[in-house]
Every structure is written in structure tokens, then in C-alpha cells.
Request: fold
Amino acid sequence: MSSDVKYNVNAGFFFFFNEDRTYSADDMNRPYRRLVSNGVFATPKGEASDDLQVFSANNGMNVIVSAGNAIIGDKWFENPSDLIITISQNSEVLSRIDSIVAQVDKTQAGRVGNIVYRQGAASSNPVHPEINTEENIFELRLADIIISPSCVKVTQDLITDCRGSNECPWVTSLIYQVDTSTLYAQWQAAYQKYYEDQEAEHDEYFTEFKQAMANFFSQEENAFDTWFQQMKDQLSEDAAGNLQLQIDNLTQMLMESISAIVTEDGDYLVTEDNEYLACGM
Reply:
């Protein structure tokens, strides 16, 4: 309409005449920002996939970053085949946490996608290294790996899959993306609670077991002491009675084995104290 007042905004794409319309790579990506958000692609059903998952190579300090696709910094990102990365051994006395990161470098010198191995700092309370927040550098944390000073082989239990967290969300379809950051946090919290419950249950059981064993040994010790005292008293009484019986028997035998001495006239021989003289058999 001739009376319209117009205010220009961004739109596209249009034919150009005499190069009056030019577009950048960001302009090419702009229409998809509302359709496909940043993250690792899940399956068509919205389920977790193994795209860009980090696995143990079961070969020393090597890990494998599986093939897969993602949208990072509004750019398509593809790892066409499994990639092997060697993790550095830990020469410190404390553990550290390393990260595997998917990166899109949109700087003029870069303009490339990368899989990045980023080493953490050894600490008594280690944390994973920070995600890069520089302008035109966009990153998703794929996995964390705990490396102890004694580690010579990266096993799967040392690898934490970070896909599905708020640092590496899922892309499930062109128009729908599940926010799994809360589910990831819930899973982590549930695992921590389960571990703490199991630890508490073990501690309670072990405490009860120790108390039960202490009570058992105390009762058995008391029972043994009572039995031993009874046996000691009985043995003492039996021994004293047996000794007295032997004395009585010996006395009887002695009395039976002696007799008073008499003369041919039938007179008893006595001492000056008028005590009879006796002789043994």
C-alpha cells in the first residue's frame, strides 16, 4: 500500500540481481535454528543412541569416540568413523578428570569441527575441565574420564557418558528435543542415593554383626567361666574326699597290722609311761 510505513528485518533467501543480495554461512543456517537445536542426534524415536559415545578400547590408555552426528553452534557436525584417542597417564599423586569434547570452531582461522581431548588438573577433589566459552567456539562435553595415578588402562567404569546432560543435550527430531538435563541430574541423584543407601545398609549390618559377635563371645566366655568354676570346685571336693578315704583306709590297715606284745604269762609289756608296746605283722 502506498501509505505503508516499512521497517526492514531479516528474511531470505531471494534472487539477486547484480549481486545485490549476498548471504553468509550463518544466513544459510538461520532457518534451521528453530527446527533443530544444538546437541547429539538420538534415534528417530527419541531414544538414546551411540552417536559420538565414548567407549573403552580395552587397549591400555586408549578410548574410542564412536561415529555420529550432532548440531553444534548451529552447524552440522559429523564424525564419519570411530576415532581412537590416547589418554595421558597420570604422573601426579592425585587423581584427575579428563574430558572428551565435540567442538565447532567458527573463528576465521578455524572454520572446522573437532573432537577435543582436554586434560583436567590433579586434585584431592578433582573436577572436569571447563567447556570453552570463547566467542565463536561452541562445545559439547561428550564424556568425562577419571584417571588415577595408578591407572594404566582406561576401563568402561572410568568413563562417564555426558550425553543427555545440559552440557550435551539430545536432538530427537527436526521439531522436538527432549530436555534430559533434569533426567540426567535425577539419574545421578538416584545413583548417589542408591550408593549411599547401600553403604549405610552395609555399615548398619556390619555394626550389628560386630555387636552380635561381641555378645556371642561374651556369653560363651561367661558360660565357660561358670563351667570351669563348677568343675574346679567339683574336682577340689572329689580330691579332698578321695584323700580322706585313702587316709582312713591306711589307718584301718595300720590298725589291723599291729598288736600288743604279751609275755608267756599273758602280761602286756608296757613302757615307763604305762603305754603298751606293739609290733607289726
Notes: The chain has a mean pLDDT of 81. Residues 181-256 form the longest helix (76 residues). The helical segments are 25-29, 181-256.
